[in-house]
Amino acid sequence: MTEGKPTQLPLLVISCDRYADLWAPFFAIFFKEWPDCPFRVLLGSNHRRFEDQRVATIPIGDDLNWAEGVRRMLECIDSKYILIFLEDFLLRKPVDSQRVAQLVNLAVERKVGCLRLVAGLPLAFPPSRPVPGLPGIGVIDKDEPYRVSAQAAIWEVAVLRQLLVPGMTAWEFEEIGTMLSSKFAQPFWAVYESAIEYSQCVEKGKWKPEGLEICRRANISADLSARRAFTPDELVCYFKTTEAACLPHQQMRRAVRHFVLGEWARGLTETVGLIRAAPLNPMPWGVLLVGATCPAVFSLVQRYRLRRRLKGIAQRSS
């Protein structure tokens, strides 16, 4: 892997004033676990500033939507590449600056569109296959779910900007951005083992117990008057409900992907499982019929859905 000093690029913590109560614990833990961070640290906000000489605040004005906010932040930054974070990513272990610097240099030298720096987290799935000659690094193929995510990553700014369709939420950025990413010639890569270990400590605007525990171990107080916390039972119930809603959709996507790749037996297995779970649901029957007869139709349907989603976002934000 590439050695030497890190390419000089900024580390942008994407945030907004509604999450200003997280800034103090985030940066206290960030600099505790990464005291020798070699990158210029920036914080994106609306109007408020974080008073710390190690952090430069970028106030962008009123909060319109997530994608537009990030685009405005990027307009204030003169850099071809950037490392992005979110304000609720609380570091769990010391960061190896040398390893991160090597990954930055690699991304810049190989002209990578995105190099994801974490593995094993939700929506940070393993790479599709290894990059030859680069141990620990893998390619994220164009048909992989969540090829685009808001997890910590090194981005080519021009690529990131094109994926930030004005009006998008962070969740739409991940879902629709993944579909849009197929048009780029630049590769999308990811690590097999996290270079930066953190926990995403806020869910649906509320503290998760693990986030409060990270703060407690660091002797940092979280402002529970600004946002309440999940109880352990509430969080378990929330994740069970979310998982129950998401699993069939994920299984459907896997089935479609197998059919498109010509993996008929695997597509059949996934689809039959869906049919057994909900025999009156017409969707898996339709996937089975198209997958068995003309899987190319799936690409047409996806392009149609993408156009409809983009049109809906444009109408919503106008």
Helix content: 40-55%
CATH class of the largest domain: Alpha Beta
Low-confidence regions: none
Mean pLDDT: 92
Give the class from helix and strand content and strand pairing: alpha/beta
Number of helices: 10
Overall strand count: 13
CATH superfamily of the largest domain: Spore Coat Polysaccharide Biosynthesis Protein SpsA, Chain A
Domain count: the total is 2
Strand content: 15-25%
Radius of gyration: 21 Å
Strand order of the largest sheet: 3-2-1-4-9-6-10-8-7
What is the CATH topology assignment of the largest domain? Answer: Spore Coat Polysaccharide Biosynthesis Protein SpsA, Chain A
Distance between the termini: 46 Å
The assigned CATH architecture of the largest domain is: Alpha-Beta Complex
Please provide the ordered H/E string of secondary-structure elements. EHEEHEEHEEEEHHEEEEHHHHH
Can you lay out the helices and strands and say which pair or pack?
Blueprint: E1 10-14, H1 23-33, E2 40-45, E3 55-59, H2 66-75, E4 81-86, E5 89-91, H3 97-109, E6 114-116, E7 129-130, E8 137-139, E9 153-156, H4 157-163, H5 170-180, E10 188-191, E11 198-200, E12 202-203, E13 206-207, H6 209-217, H7 232-260, H8 264-277, H9 282-293, H10 296-317
Parallel strand pairs: 1-2, 1-4, 2-3, 6-10
Antiparallel strand pairs: 4-9, 5-11, 6-9, 7-8, 8-10, 12-13
Helix pairs in contact: 7-8, 7-9, 8-9
